[in-house]
Write a structure and sequence with these properties.
This protein is about 30% helix and about 15% strand. It has about 500 residues and is of the alpha/beta class. The protein starts with a strand and ends in a 9-residue tail after the last strand.
């Protein structure tokens, strides 16, 4: 670092700045640096000082070292981060920063630095001369999963348009294309007898399902969480089936009154994603059986994967973000079953059928229940419908789960009633069942024939009828004496077409 640093702020001093620079160069002390700060002078200042800056004519960007995360430092790019604005100066070019309509990202390399690289060198000073501070409202924290994400970003800036979103640690999300069919469809004429439906909190998975209500002429309103999680809720959610209704009855007696309650899985996907044809199964042209887990491999420990490999059963594990959370598991499982564990990228709804129908069966959560048939002892595993249940149904896949025949398990009850899956306690038992071609064909066709049950559209009319029933109950006169009533007007943000404010 030079002994002396000279700062020279300037604005419209083209006639004088050369003399100022020359006076500095005339000093007997040569261990100095000159930093010229030009406040966007409209005169010839830039042209006049150019010869003095010619020692690095090929440089288009200069970056300094930076102090970061309290007591750490880097002479250039911080590990796992792009060059930060605080450490960069660059020449003015005709390029523009990436705009929101093109892509939302935390990666400054994608946003702008990549446009400069073909135009010159990136030169480092080799000196730490700035600090990148750390605070909770930084933009990259708002964007990066799992604390940030597309929904916190949407809520922060009150955005109503679909986004193209890709952080440096997450998957690419193209809502523009994903929701195109719903945005470009003709408007639905409101039903004169339609309901005003308030959606409170968030929509968790498969948010487009609520359009099934709008398509029936009802008006939708949203009253949203102010600080949603990146996927809105910590799911899959344990609700939407008789076992959960009965469990709540043990806590709040009377809550499951059939006259005032309706059992429905609120995260079911929309029917639109169920169109298409099944793909040929891998096992028809390859050796072994092929199973899929589209999400967390809960209950499938590394030694379990090894047991699958011993039976020549392959496990196909999907989800980039989930892979990042299960790195240690992947490393251990790969060592034990190097040829039978396969990793795949995330698959969106429009490709569920094509991608997952190539497998023989799909995994739900694999666990041993300990409730011994007593509802009071049931836990989250026992009562949960994993979100992947509908995903597997789209593809017509039999579901795989442990045989808990002496316990209360929601997925087991459903799969046995509809004959949708296989039940077993060892991987050898699973292999024996997968090898039964006649039985497997029967179960596959059962799932395919009944997969409409796993769409939100299938239940929409029943849900609307329930809303009307409850509304009629509310209209009946209340005979209880009311001594004081406090009211408050509630205004909801419109969600989609047929919008307005609640009266």
């Amino acid at each position: 670092m030079p002994l002396v640093s000279v700062l020279m702020p300037t604005f419209e001093h083209a006639s004088f700045i050369r003399r100022a620079i020359d006076s500095l160069r005339a000093q007997t002390l040569t261990d100095w640096e000159l930093i010229i700060i030009d406040d966007a002078s409209p005169d010839e200042t830039g042209v006049i000082i150019q010869p003095y800056l010619a020692e690095l004519p090929a440089a288009v960007l200069a970056y300094s070292g930076v102090r970061h995360h309290y007591n750490q430092a880097a002479l250039g790019q911080i590990e796992e981060y792009p060059l930060q604005l605080v450490q960069v100066m660059h020449r003015r070019t005709a390029d523009y920063w990436l705009e929101r309509v093109e892509l939302v990202t935390d990666d400054l390399e994608w946003m702008f630095w990549s446009k400069l690289r073909p135009q010159g060198d990136f030169v480092g000073t080799g000196q730490v001369s700035c600090e990148w501070v750390d605070h909770p409202d930084q933009r990259h924290k708002l964007l990066r999963e799992p604390v940030g994400g597309i929904n916190p970003y949407r809520a922060r800036f009150n955005l109503k348009q679909p986004l193209r979103f890709h952080t440096s640690v997450g998957n690419y999300i193209d809502e523009v294309e994903h929701y195109r069919r719903f945005c470009e469809r003709p408007d639905t004429r409101p039903d004169p007898e339609g309901l005003k439906i308030l959606l409170v909190g968030e929509l968790a998975y498969n948010a487009e399902r609520v359009l099934a209500l709008e398509e029936r002429g009802h008006r939708l309103y949203g009253l949203w969480l102010p600080d949603p999680y990146w996927y809105n809720t910590v799911g899959p959610l344990p609700f939407g089936h008789p076992e959960m209704r009965d469990w709540f009855e043990t806590v709040v007696p009377g809550l499951s009154d059939p006259n005032r309650s309706l059992v429905l899985d609120g995260d079911l996907p929309k029917r639109d994603w169920f169109c298409g044809e099944r793909s040929p199964r891998l096992s028809q042209s390859n050796e072994g059986c092929h199973t899929v887990v589209p999400g967390r491999p809960i209950g499938l420990h590394p030694h379990t994967v090894a047991e699958l490999a011993e039976q020549d059963i392959h496990l196909h594990f999907y989800g980039d973000f989930t892979h990042g959370q299960w790195l240690t598991w992947i490393e251990k499982a790969k060592k034990l079953a190097p040829h039978h564990l396969h990793l795949h990228h995330q698959v969106d709804q429009e490709n569920w059928l094509k991608e997952f129908s190539q497998y023989d069966a799909g995994w739900l959560h694999f666990f041993q229940s300990e409730n011994e048939g007593e509802l009071h002892r049931a836990n989250w595993d026992d009562l949960n419908y994993p979100a992947r249940l509908a995903t597997l149904a789209v593809a017509g896949l039999p579901v795989l789960q442990r045989d808990n025949r002496d316990a209360i398990v929601a997925t087991q009850t459903l799969a046995r009633q509809l004959d949708l899956g296989l039940f077993f306690t060892t991987m050898a038992e699973l292999r024996e069942q997968l090898a039964d071609e006649i039985r497997m064909a029967q179960v596959r066709e059962n799932v395919w024939r009944q997969r409409e049950l796993f769409t939100f559209d299938y239940h929409a009319d029943r849900l609307i009828n329930f809303f009307r029933h409850i509304a009629n109950l509310r209209r009946k006169p209340i005979r209880k004496k009311v001594t004081q009533v406090q009211t408050r007007r509630l205004t909801a943000a419109p969600l989609i077409k047929n919008i307005g404010n609640l009266p």
